[in-house]
Amino acid sequence: MHWLPNMENMKKHPINIVSVFPICLSIKANVEPNPLEGVQIPYIFETNHSTYNSENKTISVMVKFEIQEAKGEAAKQPPYIMLVELQAHFIVDESMFPVDKIDDWAKRNAPIVLYPFLRERVYALTIQAGFMPLLLPLVEVPTFRIEQSKKD
Predict the structure, then answer these.
(1) HSE (CB half, 13 Å, CA atoms) of 86?
(2) What is the per-residue pLDDT across 46-90, written as a single tens digit (0 to 9) for each?
(3) Has residue 38 been placed in a domain?
(4) What DSSP assignment string belongs to 78-140?
(5) How many domains does the chain have?
């Protein structure tokens, strides 16, 4: 019995990931590692992308997760500060995906494609530093559809 779907019967998406690599993986403890169950840690999540390179049909996308030190003397510090930045390169099949929609795809869909990679690195870094693993929440995936106009 196979638990994986038959890949031959699955339709390939017109934009595919070529590589994912870390730009920065950093964690610095502010306290001795201890369980953090129920603790809310404020964080920043950002994305950015390059312009589409029509010559080699690629676009690069970056996702960033950061927990910063609290500002001000009376501010309670998080148990650690962390920075995880990942960059990915995607290749586009222009015969199957409209070039004028690539920028929108990079803004809306590419971060969702990269989110599992980001979740894994955040989880792994917290464990490796001796903290309770930090699990980023699951997110709802927006649907991106290309609608073709119907000809009379």
Answers:
(1) 22
(2) 999 999 999 999 999 999 999 998 887 777 788 899 999 999 999
(3) yes
(4) PSEEEEEEEEEEEEE-TTTS-GGGHHHHHHHTHHHHHHHHHHHHHHHHHHHTTSPPP-PPP-P
(5) 1
- The C-alpha atoms of residue 83 and residue 64 are separated, in whole angstroms, by 7
pTM above 0.70, yes or no: yes
Average pLDDT in the 119-139 region?
93
Question: Is the residue at 141 inside a domain?
Answer: no
The rounded distance, in Å, linking the Cα atoms of 16 and 151 is: 30
Distance from C-alpha of 135 to C-alpha of 125, rounded to nearest angstrom: 11
Most distant CA pair in the chain: distance in Å? 69
Q: What is the CATH number of the domain that holds 116?
A: 3.10.420.10
